[in-house]
């Protein structure tokens, strides 16, 4: 494990870290499909929360509700103690919630620096005209990506020409640049090589060390969860069946729970019913 990003490098989240976001009793269906059933999650200041579950478990639906892309059928969202509702992604962003979607939402035929400032472009007035300040955006993008240690050939190149890993890094960097209070990353490590994964994990670990931004991370690799996350919520068939801090569970327990699709209590009850194992 990398000592820079390893969990030993990070102080545990204090017990008094305030809850900054709560989703309570959220349900969501799409026609005949029930995607979420009475889901409740809590996110604390500076916490990195892993959301895990099988394909189709409802992970993306849950974070799309939080990022204003979908509206829940029932349930409430409380942000910093106040009930909120997000009618659109713009609405969620105005509450400090930034999301990197599974499909990234970068514009392939625009340059890296235009993507970095998509929707929040710098403008300048020239001869009474309102023009894009490309020079400023180019310079700020270059500095910002350099500071994060993200190496791409040029901020002028179009996103289409970048590797998958570089694209992922640009998408994550763009979201961090917006200074969110909550950053949501939907499978940021999917399709990344070892080096690129380590880089994105390093960015998450940096945020975790500073404890200013709370992160919800959807990820399938349990090793990586234990490396960078404070807490795990396991979503199974639209329901949260397991919620534990990474310090009070283990990869082995998580694998057992994910395989069974049951929480701790249900596993214990099933074991009690089955009786002692034959010697
Ligand atoms: N826009 C939609 N319209 C109809 N059904 C949808 C829509 N979005 C998601 N679903 C369905 O809701 C369920 C949950 O999907 P979701 O994308 O949230 O799963 P996921 O946990 O993110 O899976 P994966 O790991 O494959 O990304 C699935 O059965 C899916 O087919
Ligand atoms: Mg998904």
Automatic annotation (TrEMBL):
Source organism superkingdom: Bacteria
Keywords assigned by UniProt, alphabetized: ATP-binding, Nucleotide-binding, Sugar transport, Transport
InterPro entries for this protein: AAA+_ATPase (IPR003593), ABC_carbohydrate_import_ATPase (IPR050107), ABC_transporter-like_ATP-bd (IPR003439), ABC_transporter-like_CS (IPR017871), P-loop_NTPase (IPR027417)
Start and end residues of each ABC transporter domain: 21-262
Pfam families associated with the record: ABC_tran
Gene Ontology MF term list: ATP binding
Protein name as catalogued: Simple sugar transport system ATP-binding protein
Natural source organism: Inquilinus ginsengisoli
